[in-house]
Structure formats: C-alpha cells, structure tokens
UniProtKB/TrEMBL annotation:
Name this protein carries in UniProt: Regulatory associated protein of MTOR complex 1
Region Disordered, residue ranges: 723-793
Assigned keywords, A-Z: Repeat, WD repeat
InterPro entries: ARM-type_fold, Raptor, Raptor_N, WD40/YVTN_repeat-like_dom_sf, WD40_repeat_dom_sf, WD40_rpt
Any single Gene Ontology cellular-component annotation: TORC1 complex
Organism classification: Eukaryota, Metazoa, Chordata, Craniata, Vertebrata
Domain Raptor N-terminal CASPase-like: 54-207
UniProt-listed GO biological process terms: cellular response to amino acid stimulus; cellular response to starvation; positive regulation of cell growth; regulation of autophagy; TORC1 signaling
Gene from which this protein is expressed: RPTOR
Gene Ontology molecular functions: protein-macromolecule adaptor activity
Residues in coiled coil: none
SMART domains membership: Raptor_N, WD40
Biased composition regions of type Low complexity, renumbered to the chain: 726-739
C-alpha cells in the first residue's frame, strides 16, 4: 500500500514528467531521526533505581486490645457478625487462652513474610507496657525499621484528639494512649498498622503531630532557651509508613462469613482471604462444586511454585507488582516495593485489601497515599487464574488427578511479545514488564522470557532504565551463576545492554567473577567491555552502530581474542585499568633519551601529540612519537621493553582511545580527549617536574613556544595559558621527529549573519584531530594487507544493497507540507532534466560563453555542481564556499573542520534529488557530511563524520581521497593513497567491503555502476582496474587494462547497460574500453600536461585543464571544440593555471577553478540555451 502510494503518478504531471518518478523511490541517506534530531546521551540511572537507603524491618510489636467476651461501648455489632481473629474463633475457648492463641497466630502470619524479625506481643496492654515494648524495640533496632501492629477490636474507637485506647492494670477502665507519645517511643523509621474502626483518624492525627514536632524543632533552633534546644534531635517522622483499615468516618465490615480482622487477614494471609472472597461472589456459580470449606483443602505450600497454592501465590505477587509498577510514580514504587521486603509484601497485600474492603463500603488508607487500584484490569487476570485453579480443585481432591498449571505466565509473555512487535512508536511502557521479571524464576519459561527481555532492552537506554526500575538487576546477577548453556548468549547480551547504560554495575559483575571463578562470567565481562566501546556518542546514531573508527578498526576487542582470565578480571574496574595504562610508561635505558609513555602508542609520526590536564588548563603533557618504538626488532623484545603485551586488553583499549581522539566528529574526539587527558595527568602526577619547566610559563603566556631545556632535551612538560588552543613545540631531541607548532585555522570573512561553523550541539568548536596527525599506524594491518578475519570475510559476502527508500513518515499524508515540498522538488528535477536534454540534443559546437566569474576566498581544489539548483560548491584546502552561478552571489562559506596539514580532495552531493547533503573527503581519510549549507536562515551543521580510510598518509603529491556515491543503493566507494577500495553502507552505517586493488600505486579516480555492480578504478601507475563487488575478494578483480603509461587523471564508467569505460591519463591519451573486452575499443589523443579533467555524463564532451593556462573542450571523437584562455571582461587577462574543473550533471555547463583564486562557469551559446 505504501509503495503503491509513493510510486503513483503525481497530480499535475504531464506526459513528459511521468518518466521521472524514480526520485520517489531513491533512498535518502542520513535522514533518519537520529541524524535530524539533537542527540542526547542517556542520563545516569544511579538515582532512579539503585536504593541508597535500603532498610530491613528487624522488630515487630504486636499490640492486641481484644478484651475477649466484652464488646466496646461505642460499637453496636450485628447478629450474627464477624468473629474470627487471625482465623481463630475467640468464643471457642477461654478468654485468656483465646487471646494468647490469637497472638501466636498473628505472629506466625507475619513470620511468613519476615521470619528473621524480632517479634514481641503485648496482649490487652496498659500504657506503661506499650511504652516499655516500643522503647525496647527501638533501642535494639537502632536505625532499622520497626513495625507496630495495633488491633483495637475490643476497645473504643480512636478519638479526634489523636488517641487510641488500651487498658488499666485491673481491666476496669479504658485508658487513652496519645499518638504523639507513640511517635516518641517508636521513633523513625517505623511502619504502623491500624486494624480498628475509624482508623483514618489515627493517620490524620499522626500527620498533625509530625508537623507539630517539626515546628517545635524550628522554634528551638532559633531560641536557645527553649526546652528542646538542649535535647538531642528526635528523628523525622517523614520516613514513617501507615496502613489503616478504613477512613476516619467508617466502621469495619461485620459480614459473618468474613473474619473480624479482615484488614489484617488481607495483609498477612492474602491468598486465603482472596479465595474466600472469590467464592462469596456471584461469579463463583460458574465453578460448580467449590465451597468455602473446599478452599481450605487446597494442596501445596505458599513457597512451592509447583503446587496449586504456591502457583497462586506466585501469580498474585506478579499481578500486584505489576499493578503497583504501572500506577505508582517510580520513586514511590522504589520506596514501597523495593526498599524493604516486609514493607513490599504488606503493600502488595494492601492492594488486595483495598479491592476486597471497598466491596463492603470500606476504604483502606495508607500514608503515603496510593492512587486507587481496585479497578485495575490486571485484577481480571487474577480472577481468571483463581477460576482456573478452583475449577480443578474438586477432581484434584476427590479423584487425585494431576494439577494443570495456569497459562497465566505464558499468556502474559505473549502479550509482552505483541507489544514488542506490533506496538506503535509513541506508546506507554509494557505493563507486563514486572511479570517478565517473575517469569525468570521459572525454568519452563525462562529462555523465552530472557529472549523477550533482550529484545526489549535493545530498544534503547530508556528500556534499560525501566527494566532496572522494576528490579531486574538481582535476578540477572543470580542467573549468571546458572550452568545452562542455552542461557549464556542471552545473558551476555542483556548484561552488555545494562552496562552500556549503567557502567557502575561492572564492579558488581567483577566481584561475581572473583567469587565464583566462573568462565562464563569472564566471557560476559569481556563482551561487556567490548560492547561499551560502541555507544560512544556519535553523530550517526543514538544507540551504537555508528560510522566511527570503532566499527572499522581491527583493534576492537573480540570474544575470541581473550587470552587470559586475569586480563579480563583486571579490566573490570576503572582503577585497575588506569594503573595498567600508567604502567606503560617507562624510560629506555640504552641509546638516546626516549621517554616511553602512553602517548608512545599514539599513531603520530610527524608531530607530537599534546594532552591537557583535566584539572589544570596550564599543564600540557607532550609525548614522543612512536617511531623510536619501531626500532625494536620484534614484538617480543618490544613487549619486554614496555612490560605490557601489545596484544593485551590495555593496549587495545588505549589504541581505540587514540583512534577516537582523532575522530573527525568534534564531540567524539572531545570525549576521547578527556579520557586521554585524565590518564596522562595521572601518569605525570607521581613524577617530579623539572624546575626548568616552570620558568617557561612567562614565555608561553606571551605566546612564545620554547622547547624545555635539560639533559639530552628529555623534558617534555611545558606550561601554557591555553592548553587546548596552542600545542607546544615538539622536543628538539635527535630521537624524535621535529614538527612545527600547530597553527590555528585561518579565519575568513563569513557572509553577514554567520558567526561561524557550529557543531550539532550549536556551539563553536576547534578541531582536535590536529593533535593526533594521521600517519601510518603501528597497529594497523597496513594498506598492502587485506582483512584476514573470518568475520570480515563474512561481512564482505553479506553485502545487500538497500532497495527501499528511507522515507519520512509525514510524507505519507498527501496533504502534508513535507509531501508538497517533495512534489515541488521532484517536479523541478524533472524540468531540469528535460530542458538540459533538449539543449544537448541541439548539438554543442562551442562551450566558451562565460556565465559566471568570481574570486574565491581560497585557491579552488575541488568544484561540484548541485544537480538541480543553480548552486556550485568550491572547496579550497580546508573550507567550502557556495556560489549562485545564475545570480553571481556568494551564498555561504565555512570551515570544513579538517586539520591544517590536510586538504579537501573530493566532494559529493547526497540526496541531490531531495534534501541535499554535502559530503567532503580529505586526504587524511576523514569523511564529513554537512547540512543547512547555502541556507540564509540556518548555519551549516555537521550531520556525521567518520574515518573512511584509516591508512591514509597525507601528502601533497598523492591522489588524496577519492570517492564515488551511489544514490540508488546508498553505498559510498572510497579509496585514494591506499591499496584497497572501501565500500560503506550509509543505511546500515558500517563498512561492508574492502576490495584489494592489487597494485602498488594509489587510486586516482573511482566510478561505479549500481546496475552492473561494477567499480572502475584509475591508478597512478596508469592501469585501469575493474572490480565486481558481488564476487569473492580473491576473484573480484575481473579486468585490468595497462594501456596507459602515466597517471590516470579520470576514469569514468558510463551508467547504462552497455556503457563503456572512458579513461584519460596525464599524457592526454584517451582510451575507451568495453568491460567485456580485454583491450580498448578506441584510442584518442588530446592535449598533454593535464592538471584536471572531467567527462560529461550526458553529453559527448571532455574538458581538460592544462598547465599551460588554458582549458580545452573535446567531443567524443577527440575533436577540439574550443579553447578557453582568457577571462571575459577582464581586459584580456589570461586564465591562471587550472587547478580543478567539473561538468554539470545535466546542463552543458563547465566550472573551472584556477590557481589565481578565480572560479568561472562556461556554457554553450545563448542562442542554443
């Protein structure tokens, strides 16, 4: 349906326009939400789920005021009425024995939830007995929680003055007990349970007295003469929890079939009272044969999930947990349901009490107050589970048939799966998440639950946050000890996702490794350390999968590279990692002075790397280059020299950090530099600094760099008032390479309204990659080696081109603004194609009409026409300028962000048919993608940047980096001063193929055809090589032509089924090849000494720039059409040496850039246009 709508003819199109509907089907690169919206890192979860003040209820006071046989004067009981207390009929035995039996039963009921607490009973007590009991329990409990349970069924109701009733010593009078005094004796933290009529009055009085205490303390703090000023501060009552059986104006229900202490029964025996209440409902008629007496015979134990009673208790726990998690605020849920086991059990059961007692017009009260939950939909699932269990009860008891387990958990997992697969994008969290947590306890459903849980965590950090707030951590931590092999990959994946969001948990995992010496835990920890490399904030993604060097770098740790258990365990904490990296710093004893420090593992060989102190902006640590380390004859001697294996996890992590510090995207490099700065500062902190270095501070404050003096010039620590902005001069030691001080980027005048280039965050940035010059790296495989990794080879073969357009959701609405804008752009594209083709079909006899001329801010090095707008991009060494060649106006000018020693060597328009992006490639292998260029309302913004080639050696004589873009597939071909052709998939944002060129020279030109899957490369040795990217690496080079004898300036593959290859060398010989034939099918000769050349993709034209300061245009037969030697209107001024030129993709326009800073555009005669 979607594809049919997008491919349908546009309204208002003529017959000539209908052929250009392919624009709708072209994929869009870097247009997903993560590219268009602001990227924000995940917030710390430490405060959201980890309980800092976890408590335990260690003491329980059971105060029963029953006065068996005597009814209180203010309560008129019905006949018959409820009599059971703790499921004991007090009239069935003597008053004293009944009281003791009830007290013992109540203690047993509480012990089911907290067996290790200290229990004290106070039966029909006096005020002094209550005081003694409470103060004793508080003294023993210290800072832990104490529970006070009050049953006032045998005394009058609470008073409005905040009093409950107890007895005198002779049991002849009711004595009031002030809640204020009870607060004093119980202290805090405490939990109070009131089972009596009008219990809500106690809750209100408690809050009033707590507020009164706080006011008294405020007065005492101001007035030193106040009586409370000399007393120790009492604890705050804010940490006290209250559970009351009813509101302030309500009486307890007196239904004969229910116990008198219905509230206590709900809190301490929830399954028993829930089944009894269920049987009293009208719906029980659907389950014949079930009576109140029969439910007393349900087999099993509460703690055995394999029995009917245990399964019901398990389901009840899951349902009440789910209701609370979905209804309560996260902080309140953590406090009540995760802080204390007994409190959590009481509040789960309180939800049942609310449901049951509300059916009898009685509303339980809690403090903190909970929202109503008695009508939650999950109670229907509980009724169904009870119904299924009770329907089997008669046959189980009478006939002894086997118990059929409830399908509750399987059905809830299915509901969770439906949420994962069929939910909409903006949706509420899955309400089944707490149930998934409970299912982890079941061996039957555990595998499925872990699989679904992993899929949920894969949705992003917010999903991990939700799972941790539910309480997944202890469950998954316990499962790591499991010996089930089928659970291992799922657990490793889940742990990796959790630690990618909350890295502090790695300490808990490392402790588990040390405790159990588990090989599985070791593998999990290693995988987690690897996984944590991916989520570094990248411009191309919010959840890993980025076009950063981490994906491409062969140094990324992998599971199979784990060599020892010790390394993995050591890297578990940041402290041991810091120590290990610091241990890489030694001093060479023999030969010249060489300081081996972490910076020596840098990739720099032409300039010193500089790291600023994270605490002192004036402290800069300058490292020697890596070249001296190459003197070691073998890895073994080098390992013995440094003391740490080059294959260890420490050097791998350090190597990745150095890659990231030189990342072309500023935010990534800044984060990596912070880590490197911190390590470098710690390395140097323990060493004594040479006194001479301090004397240089004044000179640096004046901006005069100076190498530190000292024996053999070993000192490399200098001070500067601006550490990040002006790196110090490198050491003048003979053991290091000399490099100039890095210059600041040249400031240029920008158009009005532009304050400078902004990073995605909106702030101006200074590129840091100049601090890590890109040179041949010691750890890289090198340009002459291909990937020998099994995973890499599999990745090459798994290449699948993107065939479905990445469409913006709003465009599905035919009346939306986005849809109409796209229709307008595609109509414009169709008009440009049609009109340009008409001009070409008329024939081109001359192409020398100068339609644009202007002076560029820098010497043009690359020029690129926009395919459909009158805009031309002109790149100089490190900046991009945009011109409107129709109006002759400068539209934009901004810095590309590449280091000073690199230059822009290629540009491509991405999504040229729609929302255009500009891709720039520099000769250090970096690729940057920009948006909002040539936009008067917005500043240029970097969409993404990554290291396209990691083995580039910047040089003024090389080809730099050459690229070719396939809009149909979203693939980017890149090569240059390397021995591979690297293919990037921008949809998946990863490298998919490295094709070895098989030559010893650089690649000077690239051209590809998506329909034939062919790549044509022109090389510096004059050869033309054809590759079929569908074939294996060893067979993909299908043709090699060696007819050129000099540098190939241009190799173009015509994009049609029978398209030929047109190549031109610097000597001016033009060769035309048929990819199916081993030799050229035509040879032409044009002018020699070429500096630039381009071939028109539509017209039969070849334009070449000569060192002799002219441009020649030839037709496809090699015949000269015209020469361009002079600028029009410049009084006969001669054109400068040609530095670059390019044809328009459709129009017969030619842009020419020269070394005299001028950029000009030529076209056919006006009468032809």
């Amino acid at each position: 349906m979607e594809s049919e709508m997008l491919q349908s003819p546009l309204l208002g199109l003529g017959e000539e326009d209908e052929a250009d509907l392919t624009d709708w089907n072209l994929p869009l690169a870097f247009m997903k939400k993560r590219h268009c919206e602001k990227i924000e890192g995940s917030k710390s979860l430490a405060q959201s789920w980890r309980m800092k003040d976890r408590m335990k209820t260690v003491s329980v006071a059971l105060v029963l005021c029953l006065n068996v046989g005597v009814d209180p004067p203010d309560v008129v009981k019905t006949t018959p009425c409820a009599r059971l207390e703790c499921w004991i009929d007090p009239l069935s035995m003597g008053p004293q024995k009944a009281l003791e039996t009830i007290g013992a039963n109540l203690q047993k009921q509480y012990e089911n939830w907290q067996p290790r607490a200290r229990y004290k009973q106070s039966l029909d007590p006096t005020v002094d007995e209550v005081k003694k009991l409470c103060t004793s329990l508080r003294r023993n409990a210290k800072e832990e929680r104490v529970l006070f349970h009050y049953n006032g069924h045998g005394v009058p109701r609470p008073t409005v003055n905040g009093e409950v009733w107890v007895f005198n010593k002779n049991y002849t009078q009711y004595i009031p007990l002030s809640i204020y005094d009870l607060q004093t004796w119980m202290g805090s933290p405490s939990i109070f349970v009131y089972d009596c009529s009008n219990a809500g009055l106690i809750v209100k009085s408690f809050k009033q007295f707590a507020l009164q205490r706080e006011q008294e303390l405020e007065v005492a703090a101001i007035n030193p003469n106040h009586p409370l000023a000399q007393m120790p501060l009492p604890p705050s009552m804010k940490n006290c929890i209250q559970l009351a059986a009813c509101e302030a104006t309500e009486l307890l229900p007196m239904i004969p079939d229910l116990p008198a202490d219905l509230f206590t029964s709900c809190l301490t025996t929830p399954i028993k009272i829930a089944l009894r209440w269920f049987c009293m409902q009208k719906c029980v008629s659907l389950v014949p044969g079930v009576t109140l007496d029969l439910i007393e015979k349900i087999p099993g134990r509460l703690n055995d999930r394999r029995t009917p009673l245990g399964e019901l208790n398990w389901i009840f726990t899951a349902i009440t947990d789910t209701i609370a998690w979905n209804v309560l605020p996260r902080d309140l849920f953590q406090k009540l349901f995760r802080q204390d086991l007994l409190v959590a059990s009481l509040f789960r059961n309180f939800l049942l009490a609310e449901r049951i007692m509300r059916s009898y017009n009685c509303t339980p009260v809690s403090s903190p107050r909970l929202p109503p939950t008695y009508m939650h939909a999950m109670w229907q699932a509980w009724d169904l589970a009870v119904d299924i269990c009770l329907s089997q009860l008669p046959t189980i008891i009478e006939e002894g048939t086997a118990f059929r387990h409830s399908p509750f958990f399987a059905e809830q997992l299915t509901a969770f799966q439906v949420w994962l697969t069929m939910g909409v994008e903006n949706r509420n969290p899955p309400e089944q998440l707490p149930i998934v947590l409970q299912v982890l306890l079941s061996q039957v459903h555990r595998l499925r639950a872990l699989d679904l849980l992993g899929r949920f965590l894969d949705l992003g950090p917010w999903a991990v946050s939700l799972a941790l707030s539910v309480g997944i951590f202890p469950y998954v931590l316990k499962l790591l000890q499991s010996s089930a092999r089928e659970l291992r990959p799922l657990l490793v994946f889940i742990w990796a996702k959790i630690l990618a969001v909350d890295s502090e948990l790695v300490v808990a995992l490392s402790h588990l490794v040390v405790q159990y010496e588990s090989n599985f835990c070791t593998v999990a920890l290693q995988f987690i350390e690897e996984e944590k490399n991916y989520p570094l904030p990248s411009p191309a993604t919010t959840e890993g999968g980025s076009l950063t060097p981490v994906r491409d770098s062969p140094c990324t740790p992998r599971l199979r590279s784990v060599s020892s258990y010790g390394n993995i365990r050591a890297v578990a904490t940041a402290r041991s990692l810091n120590k290990s990296l610091q241990n890489l710093s030694l001093t060479e004893e023999s030969g010249g002075a060489v300081a081996f420090s972490p910076g020596n593992l840098s990739t720099s060989s032409s300039a010193s790397s500089t790291l600023g102190s994270p605490e002192n902006e004036e402290h800069i640590l300058s490292f020697e280059t890596i070249d001296k380390m190459r003197r070691a004859s073998s890895y073994s001697s080098l390992n013995s020299l440094i003391g740490v294996s080059f294959n260890s996890v420490y050097t791998q992590i350090w190597r990745v950090l150095l890659h990231l510090a030189a990342d072309p995207y500023p935010e990534v490099s800044d984060l990596a530099m912070k880590v490197l700065n911190s390590i470098a500062y710690k390395v140097r902190a323990g060493r004594s600094l040479p006194r001479c270095s301090f004397r240089l501070r004044d000179r640096y404050s004046r901006g005069e760099p100076q190498a530190c003096p000292g024996p053999h010039h070993e000192c490399s620590v200098c001070f500067s008032p601006n550490a990040r902005g002006s790196p110090p001069a490198s050491s003048t030691s003979s053991s290091s390479l000399t490099s100039d001080v890095a210059k600041q980027p040249v400031s240029r005048d920008l158009p009005s309204g532009r304050s400078g280039t902004t990073a995605p965050g909106g702030a101006q940035y200074t590129p840091h990659s100049h601090q890590f010059p890109r040179t041949r790296k010691m750890f890289d495989k090198g340009p002459d080696q291909t990937a020998d990794d099994a995973d890499d080879a599999a990745g090459h073969k798994s290449f699948v081109s993107a065939a479905v357009a990445d469409r913006i959701p709003e465009e599905h609405d035919l009346e939306s603004q986005i849809r109409k804008e796209r229709e307008w752009r595609f109509l414009r594209n169709s008009r440009v194609r049609r009109q340009a083709q008409q001009v070409i079909q008329k024939g081109i006899t001359r192409l020398d009409d100068q339609i644009f001329l202007n002076r560029n801010p820098g010497v043009p090095s690359v020029v690129k026409f926009h395919p459909f707008t009158p805009c031309i991009a002109v790149a100089d060494k490190d900046s991009i300028c945009f011109w409107d060649w129709e109006k002759g106006e400068k539209l934009d000018y901004f810095h590309n962000g590449n280091p000073r020693y690199t230059r822009v060597t290629a540009m491509e328009y991405l999504n040229g048919q729609d929302c255009s992006l500009l891709l720039t490639a520099t000769d250090d292998g970096a690729i940057r993608v920009w948006k909002n260029f040539a936009d008067l309302e917005k500043n240029p913004e970097m969409v993404t940047a990554w290291q396209g080639l990691s083995d580039m050696l910047p040089t003024t004589r090389g080809a730099g980096m050459v690229v070719d873009w396939e809009q149909e597939t979203g693939l980017l071909m890149s090569s240059g001063d390397v021995r591979i052709v690297r293919i990037w998939d921008t949809d998946r944002e990863m490298k998919v193929q490295d094709i070895p060129t098989g030559a010893d020279s650089c690649v000077t030109s690239l051209s590809c055809d998506s329909h034939r899957s062919l790549i044509v490369a022109g090389l510096g040795d004059g050869s033309i090589r054809v590759y079929d990217r569908r074939m294996a690496l060893s067979e993909c080079r299908v043709m090699t032509y060696r007819e050129h004898t000099a540098w190939v300036v241009k190799a173009s593959l015509q994009k049609r089924p029978d398209g030929h290859i047109v190549s031109v060398s610097v000597n001016g010989d033009v060769r035309i090849f048929d990819p199916r034939m081993p030799e050229s099918v035509n040879v032409l000769q044009i002018v020699k000494g070429l500096t630039a050349l381009d071939i028109h993709p539509q017209a039969d034209l070849i334009a070449c720039g000569s060192v002799n300061q002219f441009t020649a245009i030839y037709n496809g037969n090699g015949e000269l059409i015209n020469n361009i030697k002079y600028y029009d209107g410049f009084m006969g001024q001669r054109v400068g040496a040609i530095s670059c030129l390019a044809f328009h993709p459709h129009w017969p326009h030619l842009a020419v850039g020269s070394n005299d800073y001028y950029i000009s555009v030529y076209s056919v005669e006006k009468r032809v246009r």
